[in-house]
Write a structure and sequence with these properties.
This protein has 181 residues and is mainly beta. It has 2 helices and 13 strands. Strands 1-2-10-7-12-5 form a 6-stranded antiparallel beta sheet, covered by helices on one side. The longest helix is centred in the first third of the chain and has 8 residues. The chain is globular and about 50 Å long.
């Protein structure tokens, strides 16, 4: 696996080595010793899998308690995945990283604790799998507006159409009003 730096040093793109032939392919998607060497010691306690249709945007989510680091990948389709730094004392506070994750490129993104996370579905549908370093706590979940002017995230909206949002995400907080970590 290759661990690639992003503009926010703690967020990493992980490119697995893929071995393929006429029968299909094989790749390691996670190896604790390599991951911990490149991303710091982490223990994953929950794994989630979601399926979404074209044009759906999920996020930007985080928890103020039970903060979660997330190792994310796409098993079917393609998404634009975003991590926003909410760590008050960070040199990259308020900055974001975006990366295309797809079943084809097989890239993963490490989103550490202290970040809001979201993704936008570019393909007809996408299946998204992610490991978390803490349990889901719905009472501590916060959603930041996907189109917050301060963050100015450059979402690659298909045909410039507004994304489809959950009611929770449609009523998300502004970056200025959202609790910081």
């Amino acid at each position: 696996m290759k661990f690639i730096e992003t503009s926010i040093p703690d967020v990493k793109i992980i490119k697995p080595q893929v071995f393929g032939d006429e029968r299909g392919f094989f790749m390691e998607t996670f190896r604790a010793d390599e991951f911990n060497k490149n991303c710091g010691l982490q223990v994953f306690v929950q794994e989630n899998h979601s399926k979404s249709s074209h044009g759906i945007l999920r996020g930007l989510h985080y928890q103020t308690e039970n903060t979660q680091g997330k190792l994310v990948r796409v098993t079917s389709g393609e998404v634009f995945d975003v991590a926003v730094d909410l760590r008050k004392n960070s040199e990259t506070f308020g900055q974001w990283v975006g990366e295309i994750l797809s079943a084809e490129n097989k890239h993963q993104l490490w989103v550490p604790e202290g970040f809001a996370h979201g993704f936008y579905v570019l393909s007809d549908e996408a299946e998204f799998a992610y490991k978390c370093t803490d349990i889901y706590n719905p009472n501590a979940e916060v959603s930041i507006q996907w189109n917050d002017a301060h963050l100015n995230i450059e979402w690659p909206l298909v045909d410039d159409k507004e994304p489809k949002l959950s009611s929770k995400d449609a009523s998300g907080l502004t970056f200025a009003d959202a609790p910081k970590l």
